[in-house]
Amino acid sequence: MNVPQEICVYLLSLTALGVLYTMNNVPALQNPLVIPAFGVAVMVVVFLVVYLAVRHKPPKDPLFYVFAEFSFTGVISLVMALEQDGFTSGFMEFYPKTGEPYIVTAYAIMMGYWDGVVHFLLYLFMVQRMAKGLSYRGVGLFWAGSLLANMAVYVPGIVIGKYASSIRPTYWLNLPFLVAALLGAIAFFNRPRELPVVTADRVAMEQNRSLLRRPVDLLLVVCLLGAMGFTIFRGFVSNQDGTETTSLHEPHHATTMPLFTQAISALRNDPS
């Protein structure tokens, strides 16, 4: 029986739980120098397992191996976030102490949830589309942009923030994600679009309709206005506004990551 590739990737990613549990209970693997070396070794093993599993029907797109690897790390990200919030224990108790102390920040925790849920589902979806020979350019661009936005804040925010003096060799494990996001975005941009055939008359008819008669467009406008308002609110929070709402009800972790987020948003929205 041929098991779908996305199921194989999903099952393989769950083995990350065993790896984390082993590291958490073997003190020799918790050394700051051993952690990145062991991590690289594990990822090499994951690649070999995936390669051997599909060698009889190798994927045409090399991004398959990237998605398989990142699905594995997505489970690690989710476990990290869950453990920091107290939902799990016994998997990564050592990591903030000898690995990456900055994973206790609010940004890192939410990034862990996003990577372990949204990105993880995107990996499985793209693997499925890949196996069926279907296009996934749009989804791939969303993934690349999402990962790039995360890492563009996370990687430099650590270097110049309060955790700059706590950088250990494990910090460099974040760079492959940044590079993969950049290369992935370039690869997907170079792929041809698959646009639906829409006649000029249909376009003109839709544009002449009132916004209230276009529910999808109306919903998009409402969501964008809400996102704009929330972004402005986050700007007040990250700049340590003194109002009660931002200082008491919506406090932020005292790192440079919120400021980096606002700076990148400003550069992205600059019309020049």
The total tally of domains equals: 2
Helix content: 55-70%
Major sheet: size, sense and barrel closure? Answer: none
pLDDT average, as an integer? 84
Radius of gyration: 21 Å
Report the portion of residues in β strands.
Answer: under 5%
> How many H/I helices?
12
Order of helices and strands: HHHHHHHHHHHH
Shape estimate: globular
Low-confidence segments, ≥5 residues, pLDDT <50? Answer: none
The tally of beta strands, per DSSP, is 0
Question: Termini separation (Å)?
Answer: 56 Å
Describe this structure in words.
It is built from twelve helices and no strands. The protein has 272 residues and is mostly helical. It folds into two domains: 5-189, no CATH class; 212-269, no CATH class. Helix 1 runs parallel beside helix 4 (63-84), helix 4 packs antiparallel against helix 6 (106-131) and helix 7 packs across helix 12 (257-269). The model has no long low-confidence stretch (mean pLDDT 84). Its main location: membrane.
Layout of SSEs?
Blueprint: H1 5-14, H2 16-25, H3 34-53, H4 63-84, H5 95-98, H6 106-131, H7 137-160, H8 175-189, H9 200-208, H10 215-238, H11 244-249, H12 257-269
Transmembrane segments: 7-23, 35-54, 63-82, 102-126, 138-159, 171-189, 218-237
Organism: Albula goreensis
Keywords: Membrane, Transmembrane, Transmembrane helix
Brief write-up:
The chain is 67% helix and 0% strand. It has 272 residues and is mainly α. It folds into two domains: 5-189, no CATH class; 212-269, no CATH class.
